[in-house]
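User: Reviewer 2 asked us to show a designed sequence for the structure in our supplementary figure. I'm pasting the structure tokens here. Could you produce the per-position amino acids so we can include them in the response letter?
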């Protein structure tokens, strides 16, 4: 007989489950754990890399359903022994406020939606904290708010700090103080224009001449007015002279009549909006007691709108998960300044402050790593680091946080020291770098030195004399940084690799750019995104502080046809084209990697791989051997999907003199001779034409020459072997083939070197150096 009772009970159970009576049987909603893309920050901490910071910062993929998150960290994969738990986290990133003991850990997270329903737990991930990890816990938002004074000033200064600065301005900083007072007097006599900046007229061509004048002009207009208010307010705060405070108040109230949803709105023109986040905040806090209650409310109302617009933009672009938006990488700490000043009068300001601090502790800096490199190049490194220095001071007073305890800042000045030794007249890769020079970055190097106590960076700054600007920022820095004895970097290696940003800089000396022969090589895991858009495996050559082989072009305006179609393309770099085409343009997915680096007194070696960077190429390995001081050997190994032609490129500011498989180049800094040892028959040509020229109104007056060494017969594999002699170097090369190997005997004036090149490795015998590098087992050290 059938057991109908069992069937009945089972049916009733199903009815209870489907009706939700047994809620414990309901299925939790799922998190989005799809693989991170090239432009994503990704899940952190990494499982296969010990954390450099303790506690490690956590980042995970945000979920639209989640209103908040729970994070758990345990010492076992079953989460029976909990090491850390945080609930009600508002962001998909978190840095704990306590360090962990050294060891291996496991972590997971969970989302909670608006209906208070929890998601399933994420997959379990692991990480390791080594004993030597740098202690850098993030204070909780409650702790941060407790550290902000209830009275003003609150930013860079509190009342005790004001007294200390006053005493310094009467003694050791009297000269800098008097210069600032004189500047404030001039602002009272000739105040800046405070009329509201204009909107774009209807029909304005995006990124055209009129658009650019308004776009950048409104930024300059806002800075002139807002920074004047901040300058006057600072002088008032230190001097106590009310006329400076009243002048600051009047300027700020005029600025606050501008429509925050108008021409200076964050989404309408973020360049004009960003200065209006933090400069008015400084002026308000420093001149607070000069304002009436009604005037304060007027300022607060405007700043609440500006802060919300910035915060919304950062959140909508999901900055914690996808933090590679260039402008957002300076907007967040400007929002942090605003939130610090208005934390008690704008209801959402504490959330903005927590967000800014979470960015700093979890995904900043995005363009650099613990070696101190910077993907966006020297010009943007200088600009963004200069702006960040304000936040570095703001975190010290009032929060008591030392940004220079972070590993990146331990080496931040090395990027300037190696890429632009004193006397170097140009920067390196990336946007606007050719407009940079060592004198321009010297003041910033001095700030770095004072905050980190680095004697080499102090030496760098002093090599340029006093180049500090007149202003409240410089005076504030002088009150914070310690006097560091300068030390010339004679005991440092002359060359350096910045692993995380895929940059190597080979120098004969870092003591004097005018005595230096310098090679920049790039093969970046960041790809060619943002302002660091150069092709992987490309290189630059500077002679005696001057550009010789260059990245071609100077930006007329960001995103213009010339910028997109010339400067973002491989054809503008000292790189290689395949069938006339370059690497995938302006993307995070076109990744490179520096696979080998060696530096010594007589020889530097760097090699990089650009894999899957081209449509028709699956491998390009470039090895550069720098026999110091003036001979360079470059070996390129290319493997195509199918037979292809290859075009080997150089760019310069003067014409090339072409010969039979060789060329000469006369530059401001010296002479370059190039011999193409392999292939033996190349078609050499040059042009001084940009196929997409810059806007005429930009008046760049660019005159450059673009050289091509082209193969004739399509092949699926190709090797270029190229010898550079600088300043008429006494060097000769003989070349022989041995099975799959190419042996090159190099003869110098009083020396010899043997180089054996293979597709998967290379060997060097030179002086006391006898080394074999295998591409299958690359190394970043000297072994």
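Assistant: Here is a per-position design you can include in the supplement:
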């Amino acid at each position: 007989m059938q057991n109908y009772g069992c069937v009945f009970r089972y049916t009733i159970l199903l009815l209870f489950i489907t009706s939700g009576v047994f809620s414990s049987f309901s299925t939790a909603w799922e998190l989005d754990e799809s693989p991170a893309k090239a432009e994503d920050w990704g899940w952190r901490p990494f499982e296969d890399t010990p954390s450099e910071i303790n506690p490690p910062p956590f980042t995970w993929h945000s979920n639209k359903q989640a209103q908040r998150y729970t994070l758990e960290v345990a010492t076992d994969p079953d989460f029976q022994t909990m090491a850390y738990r945080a609930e009600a986290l508002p962001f998909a990133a978190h840095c704990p406020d306590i360090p962990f003991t050294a060891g291996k850990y496991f972590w997971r997270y969970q989302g909670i939606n608006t209906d208070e329903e929890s998601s399933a737990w994420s997959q379990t991930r692991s990480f390791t904290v080594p004993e030597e990890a740098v202690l850098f816990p993030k204070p909780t938002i409650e702790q941060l708010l407790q550290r902000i004074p209830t009275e003003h000033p609150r930013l860079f200064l509190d009342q005790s700090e004001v007294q200390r600065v006053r005493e310094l301005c009467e003694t050791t900083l009297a000269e800098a103080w008097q210069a600032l007072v004189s500047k404030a007097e001039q602002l009272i006599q000739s105040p800046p224009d405070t009329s509201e900046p204009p909107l774009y007229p209807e029909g304005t061509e995006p990124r055209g001449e009129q658009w650019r004048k308004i776009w950048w002009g409104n930024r300059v207009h806002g800075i002139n007015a807002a920074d004047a208010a901040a300058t006057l307010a600072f002088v008032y705060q230190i001097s106590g002279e009310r006329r400076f405070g009243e002048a600051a108040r009047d300027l700020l109230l005029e600025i606050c009549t501008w429509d925050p949803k108008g021409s200076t709105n964050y989404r309408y023109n973020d360049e004009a909006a960003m200065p209006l986040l933090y400069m008015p905040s400084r002026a308000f806090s420093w001149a607070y007691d000069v304002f009436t209650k009604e005037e304060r409310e007027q300022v607060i109302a405007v700043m609440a709108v500006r802060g919300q617009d910035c915060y919304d933009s950062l959140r909508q672009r999901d900055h914690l998960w996808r933090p590679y938006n260039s402008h957002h990488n300076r907007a967040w700490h400007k929002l942090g300044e605003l939130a610090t000043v208005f934390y008690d009068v704008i209801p959402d300001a504490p959330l903005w402050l927590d967000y800014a601090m979470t960015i700093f502790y979890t995904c900043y800096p995005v363009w650099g790593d613990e070696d101190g490199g910077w993907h966006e190049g020297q010009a943007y490194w200088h600009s963004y680091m200069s702006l960040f220095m304000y936040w570095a001071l703001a975190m010290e007073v009032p929060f008591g946080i030392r940004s220079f305890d972070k590993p990146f800042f331990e080496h931040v000045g090395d990027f300037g020291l190696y890429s632009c030794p004193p006397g170097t007249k140009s920067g390196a890769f990336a946007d606007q770098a050719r407009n940079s020079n060592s004198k321009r970055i010297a003041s910033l190097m001095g700030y770095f030195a004072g905050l980190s106590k680095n004697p080499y960076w102090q030496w760098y700054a002093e090599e340029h004399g006093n180049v500090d600007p007149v202003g409240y920022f410089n005076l504030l820095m002088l009150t914070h940084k310690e006097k560091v004895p300068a030390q010339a970097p004679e005991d440092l290696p002359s060359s350096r690799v910045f692993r995380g940003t895929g940059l190597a800089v080979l120098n004969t000396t870092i003591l004097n750019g005018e005595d230096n022969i310098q090679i920049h090589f790039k093969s970046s895991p960041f790809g060619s995104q943002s302002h660091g858009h150069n092709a992987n495996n490309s290189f630059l050559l500077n002679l005696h502080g001057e550009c010789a082989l260059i990245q071609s072009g100077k930006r007329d305006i960001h995103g213009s046809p010339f910028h997109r179609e010339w400067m973002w393309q491989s054809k503008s770099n000292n790189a290689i084209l395949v069938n006339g085409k370059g690497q995938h343009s302006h993307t995070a997915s076109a990744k490179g990697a520096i696979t080998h680096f060696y530096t010594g007194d007589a020889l530097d070696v760097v090699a990089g791989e650009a894999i899957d960077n081209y449509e028709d190429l699956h491998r390009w390995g470039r090895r550069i051997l720098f026999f110091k001081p003036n001979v360079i050997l470059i070996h390129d190994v290319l493997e195509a999907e199918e037979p292809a032609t290859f075009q080997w490129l150089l760019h310069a500011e003067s014409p090339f003199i072409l010969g039979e498989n060789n060329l000469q180049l006369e530059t401001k800094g010296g002479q370059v001779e190039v011999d193409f040892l392999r292939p033996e028959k190349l078609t050499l040509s040059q042009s001084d034409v940009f196929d997409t020229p810059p806007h005429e109104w930009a008046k760049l007056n660019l005159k450059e020459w673009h050289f091509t060494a082209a193969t004739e017969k399509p092949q699926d594999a190709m090797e270029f072997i190229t010898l550079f002699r600088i300043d008429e170097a006494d060097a000769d090369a003989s070349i022989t083939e041995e099975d799959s190997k190419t042996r090159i005997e190099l003869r110098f004036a009083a020396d010899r070197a043997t180089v054996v090149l293979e597709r998967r490795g290379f060997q060097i015998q030179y002086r006391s150096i006898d080394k074999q590098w295998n591409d299958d087992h690359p190394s970043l050290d000297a072994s």
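For the response letter, you might also mention the following. The chain has four domains: 1-135, 138-327+339-347, 365-487, 496-731. Residues 459 and 486 are 4 Å apart (CA to CA).
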